[in-house]
Design a protein that fits this description.
There is one protein chain. The chain has a domain at 45-198. Helix content is 19%, strand content 15%. It has four helices and seven strands, in the order E-E-E-E-E-H-E-H-E-H-H. It has helices spanning 96-99, 125-138, 169-172, 179-198, and strands at 16-17, 32-35, 52-56, 63-68, 74-80, 108-111, 147-152. A seven-stranded antiparallel sheet has the order 1-2-3-4-5-7-6, sandwiched between helices. Strand 3 (52-56) and strand 4 form a beta hairpin.
């Protein structure tokens, strides 16, 4: 009888929780910060940076996270509540006005990654725990219901640490988008999502869409 192939265990994720320190280049102290296996190998501007950090945007109240991709570049994400008009939208269905002014267009839209380890998940740890505790008292089946919209900094002019040929980055005009840059982009995205919902944009066409067209229907745009 042929032997069954031996089972192999998935490699355990190596993580560490970082002490409360300001986000590099800002005065903001995140509510959670981690180092994980996605941290780039070798010297570079990423030295000393966290691989995930989470905070609540003061201006909008939206939970925000910056998470490093497995290839070393950051992604910036903002969670909107279930009653937000863009909650449930797929990335391609999000109105283009939201991406205007951002470094990269919206490329991800999804619920909280409950099955992923916290140090690499697109989710806000403090908000999730607090929400879960409140819901457990009323209805144990309820879970985090934020819808996360975000982007990754892996464009033509972005340096992707694991992309190879780092020495040619300067010749190619590539720049590493650091923690401060990612934080600023998440903050800008939070403001744009808030303004879209509340009609408080400086752009008179933003509230109704370009050319005065109404916002897309949620169900028909997923």
């Amino acid at each position: 009888m042929a032997k069954k192939p031996a089972k192999t265990r998935a490699k355990a994720l190596t993580v560490s929780t970082l002490p409360p320190t300001v986000i590099p280049g800002t005065s903001v102290v995140p509510e959670a910060a981690y180092r994980n296996d996605h941290h780039p190998i070798g010297s570079g501007p990423w030295k000393g940076e966290p691989d995930k950090f989470a905070w609540t945007d003061k201006a909008t109240g939206y939970p925000s996270v910056v998470v490093r991709e497995y290839t070393g570049e950051y992604g910036a994400h903002v969670g909107v509540p279930p009653n937000h008009s863009l909650s449930g939208y797929k990335a391609k269905a999000v109105p283009g006005e939201i991406s205007e002014g951002l470094h990269r267009p919206i490329s991800s839209a999804e619920p909280c990654q409950r099955s992923a380890p916290e140090p690499v998940s697109i989710c806000h740890i403090s908000a999730r725990i607090a929400h879960g505790q409140r819901m457990a008292a009323m209805n144990p089946r309820q879970e985090d219901d934020a819808w996360w919209l975000g982007m990754t900094f892996d464009g033509p002019r972005d340096l992707v640490p694991a992309g190879g040929k780092r020495k040619l980055a300067a010749e190619r005009g590539e720049t590493y988008r650091d923690a401060r840059f990612a934080f600023e982009q998440a903050t800008l995205l939070a403001r744009k999502l808030f303004d879209w919902e509340n009609g408080a944009s400086s752009d008179p066409t933003l509230d109704s869409g370009l050319s005065g067209l109404p916002r897309p229907d949620k169900e028909g745009s997923r």
